[in-house]
Amino acid sequence: MEKYAENQSFENINFSEKGFTKGEYENCTFTNCDFSEADLSETIFEDCEFIHCNLTLIKLTKTALRKVKFTDCKMLGINYENCNEFGFEVNYENCTLNHSSFYKKRLFRMTFINSQLQEVDFSACDLKESVFKNCNFAGAVFDNTIMEKADFRTSYNYSIDPETNHIKKAKFSLSAISGLLYQYDIEIDMAN
After folding, report:
1. Which residues partner with 121 through β-bridges?
2. What distance in Å separates the CA atoms of residue 33 and residue 183, rounded to the nearest whole number?
3. Which of 11, 61, 93, 166 places its Cα 20 to 30 Å from the Cα of 68?
4. What structural domains does the chain harbor?
5. Beta-carbon-side half-sphere exposure of residue 8 (alpha carbons within 13 Å)
6. Alpha helices in the chain (DSSP H)
């Protein structure tokens, strides 16, 4: 049975045990909920917010994420590449997205703030004009990624090959410039 929920708040619910009812959720807030390994496939989330939730290993096949904000969430091992493309818009603050994949996703003008993006796959993504504030990219993969006008100035631990990615007018800080030159195996002395 599909559900329609609008302007509702869901708090302290363990959807991993209880199960999650598929349907359409509009302008809903999920706080301190556990979705770990839940199947959210073919569900529509529009103008929703997830706060302090565990979404580790959720399934998102044909799931619509339209203007969805995640704050202080644990989101390990998620394949966003399976999401519905129509209206896809997500923003993250203080989230852990390690080992996730955005392969071929259009993340145009998205915002990632104070988030862990370790070993995340951004291959063939469109990150144009996205903002990454204080994000950790250790082990993240960028290959044939469009980063035009993206802002990486306060982020760190990235390794981005300018020859295999589109970085025109992207913003980087001088202190992290080695992340753009790693493939040349050179030493950069920042003291002088």
Report:
1. 101, 141
2. 42
3. 166
4. 101-192 (2.160.20.80)
5. 10
6. 15-18, 178-181
Total-model pTM: 0.90
DSSP one-letter code for 25: E
d(CA 34, CA 52): 9
Residue 153, both tokens: 């100035």
CA angle 27, 33, 34 (to 5 degrees): 130
Kindly report, residue by residue over 121-166, the tens digit of the pLDDT: 999 999 999 999 999 999 999 999 999 999 999 999 988 888 899 9
Please name the amino acid found at residue 76: L
Mind listing the pLDDT tens digit for each residue in 9-27?
999 999 999 889 999 999 9
43-52, 88-97, 170-179 — which is least confidently predicted?
Answer: 170-179
Count H helices, E strands: the chain?
2, 11
**Beta strand spans in 95-159 (E):** 111-113, 131-133
82: closest CA among 64, 108, 56?
64
**Contact (Cβ atoms closer than 8 angstroms) between residue 155 and residue 172:** no
